[in-house]
Amino acid sequence: MKDQGKTFPEEGTYYHWQKIFSFIFVVFGITGILGYPGYDDGSHGYGGGYEPKYPPHPYGFGYEIKDHLGNQQYRKEHSDGKKVIGSYGFTDAHGIHRLVDYVADEHGFRAKVRTNEPGTANQDPANVHIQSSAYHGPIGDYH
């Protein structure tokens, strides 16, 4: 029992490597935690990142189309840079029509729809006023 105070080379080597691996594990763990960026501002991927801000500009446009079958479409819109006012509509060869007048400003989007499309009725969903003059008889008998 002379060797009770001494360690065997294999035992000392084992504990030595265990301490080294423990130290490396702790260092890499701390590095991983400190290096993790966490949640970001969502500026990566599609649509993220810097987008320049341009001041609003006044504009206006419009068009009107009529084909050889009697179908008509139109759209008009103008803006002072803060408020958008417009209208669009169509009338088909059978006289079915939809006319929409709209405003978009600091109070949101508001529209008034006038139509005689079959299956419509007077209603006011989601700040849109629908005024229908649709015939409510048998389908196909609206002329």
From TrEMBL:
InterPro entries: Cuticle_Struct_Prot (IPR050468), Insect_cuticle (IPR000618). Residues 117-143 are annotated as: Disordered. This is Uncharacterized protein. One of its GO terms (molecular function) is structural constituent of chitin-based larval cuticle. It comes from Larinioides sclopetarius. Pfam families: Chitin_bind_4 (PF00379). The chain crosses the membrane at residues 20-39. Coiled coil: none annotated. Keywords: Cuticle, Membrane, Transmembrane, Transmembrane helix. Residues 117-134 have a biased composition (Polar residues). GO terms for cellular component: chitin-based extracellular matrix.
